[in-house]
Amino acid sequence: MIFTNATIITMNAYREIIHKGAIAIRDNRIIAVDKASVIQERFEDDHMIDVGGKVIIPGLIDTHVHLAQALIRGCADDMSLIQWLCDRVWVLQGNYTHEDAYVSARLCMAEMLRSGTTTFLEAMLAHRYGFDGIAQAVEESGIRACLGGIVMDTASYASERLVMYPGMIETREMSLSGVLEAHDKWHGKANDRLHVWFGARTPGGVSAELYREMSQIARERNMRITMHLGEVEADRTFVMNEYHRSLIDFAEDVGLLGPQTVLVHMVWLTPEEIEKVAATGTHVSHNPSSNCKLASGICNVPLMQAKGVNVALGCDGGPSNNDYDLIREMKLAAILHKAVSLDPLIMPAETVLEMATINGARALGLDREIGSLEVGKKADLVVLDFNHLHTTPSPNPVSTLVYAATGSDVDTVVVDGRMVVEHGKLLTMNEDEVIEQARKHAPEVYRRAGIDVKPRWPIIE
């Protein structure tokens, strides 16, 4: 399969952009990237797909996703974090069945694929969601996934000492053993599209002893870890009061820092802590929409990048962002830091595209396989159509992608050499069925939870 007559943003080491280029794919690997004239001469007998001058980029990589929250999109808008968690999100998720979680995962994956995300890192799959069903949804959809299974042993949240909704509470044995069983069963499945991680809760939800145990197992099994950290000031206050440490010193004490870990949000860090994150090779997932919507604060991404931290990008979940469109997330990441720093040069479009591609691949330990369009890498790519009013003219395709485009401009998506979206149509799932199932299951979850979400303004029936 060859995509030809394209503008290719390779994201290779030289960040080359090839006009009138082509990409040749055999099985699930890229075997050539060059000018179209060269590729067509070399592979004249191969199936050619003329994309008519469209733009091709590496598949986007979302390093922080909550699959189960797609079904409760918009459930807790314009609320403080504590009310958001205790009155809505935990209560709704605590009333899920396995089937609800499967439906939500399919909805989330369908949205991600249709908007150009080919790989994602799930943060915390609770036992009640049914890991097998989620893994099955990954297999069916064709997406590439790192699934973090929840690890916890304490039913509270940071310094607030809030007790979790009963349906969300898990013991050490249930959570830790559940992740290890899932790793034994699913890691490397779906032609290595599916990896299993630890997805630990924040300090206050996990004892120091369990963090150390999980970190040791991760080293022994060569497993990876993701965790929210420093999302809100309460996280920092709790760790200081409970352990008399800074957030990052505590994380180091319990074995969490290092190249095997992706820490999410990381808003409430000091410059000294950022230095340690950089020195240990720990990765960071930046989630600007979620941090803004929940008024958590703003991660100091420019300083992190200046110190050498690998920063990737994430959308978070349906109640904290309301969409899983990483292209939209790129724009906010680019403009937010300009406003905060009063420096229009501080976060160029090119830097943000790196965060959504090669940096994300590096965070997941997959940069030798995905994240750029290079010979030998797996064939994960996205074809974008900029032949629209809002993307015309387009003198710089990177600028157009980051500042003007949205996920609706995605035309075609390939994951692992397989076309999963063609001309805007999802091929691996019936989109109408996905929507219908979500509309059926969501009201039942709200009913079981005893929650009724309505507009603030009066409705006239």
From TrEMBL:
InterPro entries: Amidohydro-rel, Metal-dep_hydrolase_composite, Metal_Hydrolase, MTA/SAH_deaminase
Domain Amidohydrolase-related as annotated: residue spans: 55-420
Keyword Isomerase: no
GO molecular function: deaminase activity; hydrolase activity, acting on carbon-nitrogen (but not peptide) bonds, in cyclic amidines; metal ion binding
Pfam families (UniProt xref): Amidohydro_1
Sorted UniProt keywords: Hydrolase, Metal-binding, Zinc
Segments traversing the membrane: none
This protein's name: Amidohydrolase
Organism, as annotated: Reticulibacter mediterranei
